[in-house]
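protien #1 (seq + structre)
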Amino acid sequence: NRDAVAAINSLKSRDSSYSLSFAVDYFLQNFRPPELECLASKAADEYLAKRDHDCLRGFVSALQFKAIKNEMLWFKAYFDKHTISSIKVEDYQSYLEKPKNQPNNRRKVPKVLSPKTWNNRRGNLNTFCLFCVEKGYLSDNPIARLPKHKQRSHRGTAETLTAEQAGVLMEYLESYTGLTGAKKRTSKHEAGFLVPFFALTMFAGIRPDRLDGEISKIRSKDIDFSTGVIRIEPEVSKINEKRTIKIQPNLRYWLEKYPLD
């Protein structure tokens, strides 16, 4: 009786017109308890291990995995000793709205997340919670009830080099060995070793990130002088789509003089 009275008072306090029997029926029809109780930190570690494996297989880039790892480390610290099923939608929202002011973080953290940052972090949490649903740690995905924010594009016109500026740069690169300044030591590089990098990125539009970008994955076999094209395979492309790039006369000159290998 006491439990029934408390439940009815709880409904009334929220101005609900539904009866206790309706609330119980609705609960029994819709509630699906998680199959396994799991600490949030343990679930985050399991998810990180999976994404690390995905990174090794090329399903996610190293840059993506770094963002996921940072998010999960902060998530573990924030929800320390909580079970994953006990974290509510409101808790996730408070977590996203709270800045990451860590002691060793020297960067100035904004008090309010930009729409892009919010959506990126929400996306990381969304895939994490979907993983928890698959594992049976959650009955449903709470992140699905968090809003996405509309983003305004602030991208302006890209700064470009003139033909004269590009000429000066390429002339400099032909003699550059990797060392500058008065105290030059013996270089391990031959003069012109950076020419293919700049020729491909400037004259073919190859994405230039040397660690994870297209330039780090392209090989000599992808450059076909007989047909005059560069083939960017899906595993090389940032957007996972194959494309071909016409080799312009100036690019052919540089790549023939300074072969990619």
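ok now protien #2
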Amino acid sequence: MLQGDWGFSFASRVDVDVLILQRVPTTLIVIGTSQLLALMIALPVGVIAATRPYSIFDQIANTFAFIGFSLPPFFTGLVLILVFSISLDWLPFVYR
């Protein structure tokens, strides 16, 4: 594997490195978009909640944060894929 020979995919009938390189751009787009979206939401919410402790906004933000941390990542990932890729069609789903 370290030499670059990742083998042959019998299902797709091409080399594995070709399959991986085909999917890198879509993966980077999805990761980059999700990181930007997370920063655009989390930073203002965190700053507002920190400047107004114990306010209604702070309590709602903390509630959503606790819900987000308590749900398993595979469940929230599937829900977000259903919402953003299938329902809203904002992000690519599997293939472009």
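The chain has three helices and two strands.
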